[in-house]
Amino acid sequence: MSPQLLQQFSKLTEFLGRALGPDYEVALHDLTDKDCSIVAIANNHISGREIGAPLTNVALKIIADRSYLTSDYRVHYRGVSADGKMLRSSTFFIKDETGALIGMLCINFDDSRYKALSDSILGLCHPDAFVETNFLFDEQRLATQLLPEEPESFQHTPRGVAGSEVASVLRDLNVAADRLTQDEKMEVVGVLESRGVFLLKGAVKDVAEALCCSPASVYRYLSKLRKDD
């Protein structure tokens, strides 16, 4: 991202943070360095991240699947706050004159205060049983409506991103890392590749450690997968 564009979007990040208020985190990512991509952030108490934090799992997948080529933004998908609350997240894709993705402007909305207030007001007006029957907020149903399926995880380091993604894949497989077969390890590496995890520097080493194998093995799996593709 050029210095002029960076300055302009940094000002926009600050403006949006102040205009929208403390329940909205606004983060600006410069894709020049995916390991330290956040260059401006407002209301960072929501995710706990600082300037210099890496791209998220969702951002990496957007780069890997190139979905930014057919859209200018992605809205209303799930994120998870620093204290475990569900967020409503949206991302605007910053592109250069050729259409190449050079940055992302992300907004993460924590609506938990409003939900709590709504529940309190309904509780004053109606018996609990009536509220539960007619007004119960089905967070699980809402979660299934928001995309992507895997929620956005806000990590502080590239190592954290890699570790979180490995843990996610292992949960889906329902198997411990030290019990994986060679084919299962290749399957895990394939999923991580599709999610863009290996765009981060040092990801091979971090993934190898999480899978209880050597970096050479991960490189071998990647080589085979890319050759097959």
| Rg over CA atoms | 20 Å
CATH-derived topology of the largest domain: Beta-Lactamase
Envelope shape: globular
**SSE pattern, N- to C-terminal:** HEEHEEEHHHEHHHH
Number of strands: 6
Strand sequence of the main sheet, in spatial order? 2-1-5-4-3-6
What is the CATH C level class of the largest domain, in words? Alpha Beta
- SS field, number of helical segments: 9
Describe it for me?
The protein has nine helices and six strands. About 3% of the residues have low confidence. It folds into two domains: 119 residues, Beta-Lactamase (2-Layer Sandwich), CATH 3.30.450.40; 71 residues. It is globular and about 60 Å long. The protein has a six-stranded mixed sheet, sandwiched between helices. Strand 3 and strand 4 form a beta hairpin. By secondary structure, the protein is an alpha+beta fold.
Write the topology of this structure.
Elements: H1 3-20, E1 24-30, E2 38-42, H2 57-65, E3 73-80, E4 86-95, E5 101-109, H3 112-125, H4 128-134, H5 139-145, E6 152-153, H6 158-173, H7 182-194, H8 203-210, H9 215-228
Parallel strand pairs: 3-6
Antiparallel strand pairs: 1-2, 1-5, 3-4, 4-5
